[in-house]
Amino acid sequence: MSNVIPRPTPAHPGCAWGPAFDRLALPGTLGAPAELRTWAVRCLASCRRPYATSSDLAESLKLVASELATNAVTHSASGEDGGFLVAAIHFPHDCAALWVFDLGPRPGAPSAPQAPPRLLDALDLFDTEHGRGLALIALHSRRYGWTAPPDHPAHSVWAELSAYPVAVAA
Predict the structure, then answer these.
(1) Which H helix or E strand runs over 60?
(2) What is the pLDDT of residue 168?
(3) CB 73 within 8 A of CB 85
(4) Per-residue pLDDT tens for 115-168?
(5) Deepest in the core among 47, 70, 87, 140, taking most CB within 10 A?
(6) What CATH number has the domain bearing residue 128?
(7) Would 6 be classed as within a structural domain?
């Protein structure tokens, strides 16, 4: 069985999210994913939205936060000595949105992330430890994408997580 991976959203919806509920700057170290995970779930619990107590949303938010921070530390200049990343979290009426900014690509690396494969079983992603971060983000988000120069002034990856379960037609 294959899981179809949604494609990235070309337009960034950040303005529609309204002001950030909170922001966090972290050193680009191996501890950043755990710190971002803890902070994001703490923000969700205190956001005063009807979905603030959703355990499903909290679990998806933890996974997405961890993947976003791991990717920033592993694949960008944020993971080099003195590097850092910045996160912003938003809680519009129907979703949680997490936006992670990094310092851009390491020398010689691509300037933007590569879209995940169309099918999760492609490239043996079920059994691998690396290379499936954006696929996991895509599967837990209703929309996701990234920004990179020259179209945007900063490097970032963002994800919107639905606050309410999506009804599946029978």
Answers:
(1) helix 55-75
(2) 47
(3) yes
(4) 766 665 554 555 555 556 788 888 889 888 888 877 776 788 999 999 987 654
(5) 87
(6) 3.30.565.10
(7) no
Structural domain count, the chain: 1
Residue 131 lies in a domain: yes
Residue 98 scores a pLDDT above 50? yes
Mind giving me the DSSP string for 92-157? -TTEEEEEEEE--BPTTS-SSPPPPPSBTTGGGTTT-SSS-HHHHHHHH-SEEEEE-TTTSSSEEE
With tokens 């999506």, the residue in question is 166
The answer to whether residue 74 sits within a structural domain is yes
- Find the domain containing 77 and state its range: 17-162
| Contacts with 163 (C-beta within 8 Å, 6 or more apart), sequence order | 49, 50, 51, 54, 57, 93, 94, 95, 96
